[in-house]
Amino acid sequence: MSFGSLLVQFDEGLTSLVGQWNASSTGIVTVLVLLITYSVFSRVEPDIHPMLLARQGTGSPVRQEGESPIYRSNAAPHSMPLNSGLNVKESGASRWAQGRDGDLRDIWRKAVSGSSEGNGPKGKGRILTVLGTEKVVEHHLSRVMPSRTF
Length: 150
Description:
Layout (H helix, E strand, L loop, with lengths): L2 H18 L2 H19 L8 H4 L3 E3 L11 E3 L30 H10 L13 E5 L3 E5 L1 H4 L6
């Protein structure tokens, strides 16, 4: 088949389509174009990608219409109250024992003593002051928080 015969077939097909065109064809095409345009422009993307939330939290089951759900950690689901403090547990306490609220002194104690848990970085904490892009000053914990205040 040559290029000329392809153009002739295309011309015949286009002439046949235009010859059968009427008001109902125009209406159907107009409705299809409007539906496609509406679906493209009214699409709402989720606030947070669902795969990111798969294991990190759960959406609230009750919410106002048109609003995104409020996400909470799986450790404090919607039926439970929010954690009120640091949940500091004394050494030797049961894993499931309720901890106390704690304060800044507990955070300093943890920084000075270091981490003994298996889920965090090992070693003592550090305090760094970053001045610009090149100067970093490290402060020793013994000078910042003397051990006699514990």
